[in-house]
Amino acid sequence: MRDRPGDHWDRKVANGLAFLRRRLSGDYEVDEFGFDSELTDAVFHPLLRLLYRDWFRTEVSGIEHVPVDGPALVVGNHSGTVALDALILSAALHDKHPAHRYLRLLGADLVFRMPVVSELARKTGGTVACNPDAERLLGGGDLVGVFPEGFKGIGKLYADRYKLQRFGRGGFVSAALRTGTPIVPVAIVGGEEIYPMLADIKPLARLLKLPYFPVTPTFPWLGPLGMVPLPSKWLIEFCPPIPTAHLTDSADDPLVVFNLADQVRETIQQTLHTLLERRPDPFGP
To answer: What gap in Å lies between CA 114 and CA 201, rounded to an integer?
Structure first.
């Protein structure tokens, strides 16, 4: 029988009430890291979907390079003053991947010292960017996302857009090597334009104990409205995976770690150049 008018909305209301009942009664599960897949699917991903699909008009390519199952370390460039790129990447990957896989993001210590933000990060699958946590997730067969540039990437000036910063000490490579996990580089174009950083007020950043205090065309001049991201056009491309299973005995070899980290960095940088040529207008259709 065909649904009668209103049946669709009746089901949505019933599902919504059932969701609220489970949340209020505590009848839901989280994993050992605090990841709440039900809350992520019902609340966070729908909100992020509005951003990546409608506001940023995101195009995703190369999703076939992300394994259908088993572990992989997804390594991306970081940008945008506010780290929306990590959230957009996780939601877009989940929606576009045939197996709808979750990306377990590794975040800086600062994220997990902030009230509310820390809880939200845990609920959506994030954990501290350290090798033990990364190796436990990879050992469990998860997709793990890391942005080795850290605050140097998201806190750079607009004049340095799409120029990758140093990849730290290559800790992400060591985690991949110890678990024999393939590394999937991913290039993200679009994040640099959402909050173009024109200046960094360092004394104010030190006073507030922040890694930087940005000045953008809209912030702090417009107050809270300055936090609305500009509607730049986003392109996300997953590159072919780099195998590491044959290098598991070299996890503590600095030369192997450095060379592999440099290979990942160069792959992302070259892919960024290609994507920028495909997107000549940052705010085009």
So the answer is: 21
Distance CA 23, CA 26 (A): 5
pLDDT band at 26 (very low <50, low <70, confident <90, very high): low
At 80-115, the pLDDT tens digits run: 898 899 999 999 999 999 999 999 999 988 888 888
Q: What is the pTM of this model?
A: 0.89
Tens of pLDDT along 167-198? 877 788 999 999 999 999 999 999 999 999 99
Helix axes 171-179, 131-139, angle to 10 degrees: 30
How high is the mean pLDDT of the chain? 90
